[in-house]
Amino acid sequence: MKKLILTIGLIGLIIFCGLYAKRKFYDPKHRLETAKLEVKKLADKDEIRDGDLIFHTSLSRQSKAIQLATKSKYSHCGIIYKENGQYYVFEAVQPVKTTPLDKWIARGENGHYVIKRLKNADRILTAETLEKMKLEGKKFKGKNYDLTFEWNDDKIYCSELIWKIYQRATGIEIGKLEKLSDFDLTSDVVKKKMKER
User: Fold this and answer.
1) Is 192 exposed, middle or buried (0-12, 13-18, 19+ CB in 10 A)?
2) pTM for the complete prediction?
3) Among residues of the chain, what percentage have pLDDT more than 90?
4) E strands within the chain?
5) Which of 4, 46, 2, 3 has the alpha carbon at shortest distance from 21?
6) Pairing state of beta strands 53-56 and 76-83?
7) Cα–Cα distance measured from residue 168 to residue 143, given in angstroms and rounded to the nearest whole number
């Protein structure tokens, strides 16, 4: 089977979506507490909504290789949902799961993150559509993270997760699908990570 990989936001997603929030904070001693305050500010200012996309630089072992190959400063992404008054990120990690937004923010490099929203989100992301998105997401919950970036539903990686949820629930293709060979695989960091797979 041909391997496909989705450009992690990265450029395509960021251009496709409108910029709504960009924050950076770093308080190593009180990282989670700072993130909780940050989420409260976002909610108070209406800078965060169901269906928004969030990006950060992961501290995972493959993060640098992803950044080099995709030429993006971000290496991880997810979809934000609000449930019972709290915000969460639906993400493909090991395994695919829902993570409280404050913990997701605190987990990224230097607490830096960017939130993006579809330019026409008010029209597209209706309550009915968001419910469809969540139902699509449930099909992936608990699945393993895909370290080899295959384009199937057996295992899944972060940008594949948000692409498939949006496409299947709304018909919108966020970002451009590319073959693995379209990326910059020349870095020693990338080559080493690919050999590990």
Assistant:
1) exposed
2) 0.82
3) 51
4) 4-6, 17-23, 53-56, 76-83, 86-92, 96-100, 113-118, 177-179
5) 46
6) antiparallel
7) 18
| Three-state secondary structure call for residue 174 | coil
Task: Render pLDDT for 138-191 as a digit per residue (tens, 0 to 9).
Answer: 999 999 999 888 899 999 999 999 999 999 999 999 888 877 677 656 776 656
Residue found by looking up tokens 């909610």 in the block: 43
Task: Write down all domains in the chain, each with its CATH number in brackets.
Answer: 4-196 (3.90.1720.10)
In sequence order, the β-bridge partners of residue 5 are 178
> From the DSSP assignment, how many helices (H) and strands (E) are in the chain?
8, 8
Tokens 């594949």 correspond to 160
The 10 Å Cβ neighbour count of residue 182 is: 14
Burial 76-105 (b: 16+ CB within 10 A, else e): bbbbbbbeeeebbbbbbbeebbbebbbebb
CB 96 within 8 A of CB 141: yes
Cα angle at 182 between 180 and 183, to 5 degrees? 75
DSSP 5: E
Q: What is the DSSP string of 19-61?
A: EEEEE----GGGHHHHHHHHHHHHHHTT---TT-EEEE---ST
C-alpha distances out from residue 85 to 2, 29, 53, 81, 110, Å: 42, 27, 18, 10, 26
Phi, psi dihedral angles at 131 (to 5 degrees): -65, -40
